[in-house]
Write a structure and sequence with these properties.
alpha/beta; disordered C terminus; single chain; 10 helices; six-stranded mixed β-sheet
Length: 339
Amino acid sequence: MEESLYSVPLSELIENFKLENLTPEIKTDNILIKDINVNRPALQLAGFFDYFDSERIQIIGNVENAYMHQMSLDRQHDVMNRLMEYKIPCIIFCRGLDVPDIILNAARLASVPVLRTDKATSAFMSEAIRYMRHQLAPRISLHGVLVDVYGEGVLIMGESGIGKSETALELIKRGHRLVSDDVVEIKKISEDTLVGTAPEITRHLIELRGIGIVDVRSLYGFASVRTEANIDLVIKLMEWDKDLDFDRLGLEEQYTEILGINVVSHNIPIRPGRNLALICEAAAVNNRQKKMGYNAAKELYNRVTNNMKKHAEEAESAMGPDDDSDGHDAVLPDLSDGQ
């Protein structure tokens, strides 16, 4: 069972998927869904309840519905009562199927909501799992600024007052989009995907020291903001220190671990006159190139290596064979006797 530390009220699921509630007398606000996956109770309808994941949403499709109609009324009553004993969160009928009164009565007695949707079973299951995975994902809040730069989610981090928000504002002026300033809420929605968003209270706002709070959406329009974005790159702004060794070639990737996922990371030294927005743009495009199979640092390394190999072969060719004119090995005189 894939459980989460978080939960979603069933009422929120009903509202999001526009589900028809066939048992409106049962309150759904206090029913919490904690399991990401869903279950089609085909084996349970056949009477097999070993390893039954009762905390999952139970979905009835054409197959389960047809099987139930082949049962006798007594058998339907026994199976449904046993199913309801497990305190399942709800039963959802897909394809607009008619729900037998036996199921509705058993559900009301056990206070289990019965819902219905017109969507196909497989399509609804996929959408429900995606939605639950997003809502119940592990999460963390980090201090930083998240900006969408050419489709790459760039998380800008650094000490307070180092210039993160100012860099983000310059990127917005250059046509990129703000996701969050100051605090970024990050969710791990899969084993290799992190999604960042802004807290509701600070959404679309930027704090600029000396000016105050700026509403980016009001100043630059709806095209300047995004609700969420994947985190593809981390840029750490650092004070310039001549004793620190900053990467100049980029042959070896550096990473920042967030929720167990390694994200490509760059340490950018701050000095007067450096255009941080331009550097962030270049880093985002370069990261995108690498994901598409082109690495400029490796290309330079290959050019240098091939050039050295070429010069070495030319030098070896210019020296010629190490032998005499008649084809026999040259014999050096023995100078041991002083000649």
